[in-house]
Amino acid sequence: MDSAISSLLSTRFYFQEGLNVRAYEARAAQEAAMFEDHLPFYRALALACCGPVLELGCGTGRVARAMAAAGVQVTGLDLSAPMIREAQRLNVHKRLDFVLDDMARFELKRRFALVVIPFRGFHELLTQGEQQACLFCAFAHLVPGGCLALDLFDPRPEIIARPFDPEIVDLPPLSLGRATLQVSVGERRADAVRQVMSEHWTFREVAPDGRILSQEEETHTLRWVQAQEMEEMLTNAGFTQLRLTADFSGSPYRPGREQVWVAQIPSGSI
Ligand SMILES: C[S@@+](CC[C@H](N)C(=O)[O-])C[C@H]1O[C@@H](n2cnc3c(N)ncnc32)[C@H](O)[C@@H]1O
Fold it and tell me: Does residue 146 sit in the same domain as residue 239?
């Protein structure tokens, strides 16, 4: 990768080698417990489609490993080199491989029965153009009759209407070996025109005697999508049968909850 591009990428969330990546799996488990566990949903879909599965924005391979452990062939794709290195380090499955690439522009020369973008990874694409391009790429990598599944947060009015929220929230501490990881999140800025919001994250590794061993500051920027815009983007990309629910157990969509999408391409597509 070009060095100018890699230094630009290193300023993005998940793209630095450090505490965020090291603590990602523990933090994801904490968040899944706080919200709703999505692993059984993606694992069941992978089994129903009989693989192979492509996961876009696979991070450390948490969901990809769960699908591979169920016996499915899985490829994980992510643009963050530290995340892909961590995924490779944690992998124990022969039927799982990883690719460093951009989910908005990739060409793997292979097709899959299922493409998934779990844990709100689609929001990491920061323009409508990038999000639409990702859906075109997903479509092009599916076999006829194949499916795309992804989950998003449904934008809540109190976030969109408030351009700056100064509140800083401390997440429950996590253990990091003998040290503790303290994470605080806040100073949320929202741009309703671009549909992006960003939060300032501070990660601190604290020794048992209270000394700060290391500290990392990152900005997490996400683009939110209304359900109607998502439906239009999926339809533009060629998906025909669309199913939208409010959670992983199939409850009807309700504004302000989640958007869980399963979209299929026609069985006659090439
Ligand atoms: C919220 S994490 C989800 C990771 C994983 N799917 C999981 O459920 O644990 C989002 C991931 O998207 C990746 N990402 C961000 N922009 C990307 C892009 N343009 N192409 C591929 N991956 C990207 C990040 O590096 C990060 O690993």
Answer: yes
Ligand 1 atom with least separation from CA of 117: 6
- Are 203 and 23 spatial neighbours (Cβ–Cβ below 8 Å)? yes
| Domain enclosing residue 49, as ranges | 35-153+225-264
**pTM given for the model:** 0.95
Query: pLDDT tens across 159-172, in order?
Result: 778 899 999 999 99
142 and 164 in one domain? no
Q: Look at ligand 1, atom 25, and give the residue with the nearest C-alpha.
A: 80
Q: Percent helix, strand, coil in the chain (nearest 5)?
A: 30, 35, 35
How many Å apart are CA 160 and CA 182, to the nearest integer? 27
For residue 144, cis peptide bond before it (omega within 30 degrees of 0) = no
Residue closest to 242 by CA, chosen among 155, 153, 143, 135:
135
Same domain for 218 and 236? no
Nearest residue (CA) to ligand 1, atom 10: 121
Q: Report the distance separating Cα 27 and Cα 62, nearest Å.
A: 12
* One-character DSSP codes across 99-125: EE-BTTB---S--EEEEEE-TTGGGGS
Instruction: Report whether residue 58 contacts ligand 1, using a CB cutoff of 6 Å.
Output: yes
Do 167 and 199 belong to one domain?
yes
Q: How far apart are CA 236 and CA 164, in angstroms?
A: 33
Between the CA of 59 and the centroid of ligand 1 the distance, in Å, is 5
Nearest in space to 208 (alpha carbons), one of 176, 184, 171:
176
Q: What's the angle, vertex CA 158, arms to CA 153 and CA 162, rounded to 5?
A: 115
User: Does ligand 1 come within 6 angstroms of the Cβ of 57?
Assistant: yes
The string of pLDDT tens digits covering residues 133-150 is 999 999 999 999 999 999
Query: How many domains, in total, are found in the chain?
Result: 2
